[in-house]
Amino acid sequence: MAVYFITGASGYIGSMLAAHLWGQDKNNRIIAAARNRKKAESILPKGTDILQADLSDRTETERLEIECDYVIHCASVTQSAQMLSHPVEVVESIVNTTQNVLELAKRCRIKSMVNLSSMEVYGDIDCSDGHRVSEEELGEIDLYKVRSCYPLGKRMAENICCSYFREYGVPVKTARLAQTFGEGVLPSDNRVFVQFAKAIRQGTDIVLHTAGNSMGNYCSIHDAVRGILTILRKGSSGQAYNVVNEENTMTILQMAELVARDVAGGRIGISFDIPEEDIYGYAASTGLRLSGRKLRALGWEPKEGLVQMYQDLLRGM
């Protein structure tokens, strides 16, 4: 029997990881940390040990009495609006929670840990020639944009993970996730792909609040879960891995066109409503194209394209 400790377990990726691990082997013990027990109970598989805790609180985390073999750290702020309205709390939560979870992992003498990061850590990198960005490359992030609290916080969290491996031998790896969706997206999610899916459901045009020129990198939730577990079991400690389906790389506008044409069957169109200021908190426009070569070298291969991802998403709405 393996014991998995999953933080942010009532969130999308955490809950899907718990369901996958439970489905793989009912002997697996899953300890799921969440701030809201009621929400966690409504989402997570029966048999999950739910631990209500605020892992950003060092004292509270130090009092936890658990033993586990593996840690998957999913807990993080993901709402762009919150990054604009409470940037101090966002960066504080990312950094403090990650360090507190690493302290717990060190205490438990775990076999392996994965820290979930984001493709936003790459910042501004020119990929206009079709270049695919590897894990060793990093671009600029504007220090004086409030929204940068998220990618900069994620960069710092990655450095803390590397430091705990180098200084204390904690076997931690980082998964840099592309935009991930498909089956099981939570009703509260309001990211762009959910807005596109809602337009299909309602039979209305997709409304873009930008020109749609920013490049998107996407991966299905099923592929992402397998990727994270591949990193957990086969990845090298102190290293980062992109989790992306390279065939799913396209601009926001191209994805809107694909959705309207191939998912909605041409029944809806696309319109634009671009505000003078960024009131939606979208990440900075990017031409980023991620490489998935490093993770594929561990034996992982993505299987699902965007049309399948949207079909899975729509079935659950």
Proportion of beta-strand residues: 15-25%
Please count the beta strands (DSSP E, at least 2 residues each).
13
Global morphology: globular
Oligomer: single chain
Number of helices: 11
- Give the biggest sheet: 7 strands, parallel
Task: Tell me the helix content.
Answer: 25-40%
Radius of gyration: 19 Å
User: What order do the strands of the largest sheet run in, or round the barrel if closed?
Assistant: 3-2-1-4-5-6-11
Class by SSE composition:
alpha/beta
Mean pLDDT: 94
Whole-Å distance between the termini?
Answer: 35 Å
Order of helices and strands: EHEHEHEHHEHEEHEEEHEEHEHH
How would you concisely characterize the structure shown here?
The protein is α/β, with parallel strands linked by helices and about 325 residues long. It has eleven helices and 13 strands.
Topology:
Blueprint: E1 3-7, H1 12-24, E2 29-34, H2 37-43, E3 49-52, H3 58-62, E4 70-73, H4 80-85, H5 87-108, E5 112-118, H6 149-168, E6 172-177, E7 179-181, H7 192-202, E8 206-208, E9 215-216, E10 218-220, H8 221-234, E11 240-243, E12 250-251, H9 252-263, E13 270-272, H10 293-296, H11 306-315
Parallel strand pairs: 1-2, 1-4, 2-3, 4-5, 5-6, 6-11, 7-10, 8-13
Antiparallel strand pairs: 9-12
Helix pairs in contact: 5-6, 9-11
What does this structure look like?
The chain has 11 helices and 13 strands. By secondary structure, it is an alpha/beta fold. The chain has a 7-stranded parallel β-sheet, sandwiched between helices. Strands 7-10 form a two-stranded parallel ribbon.
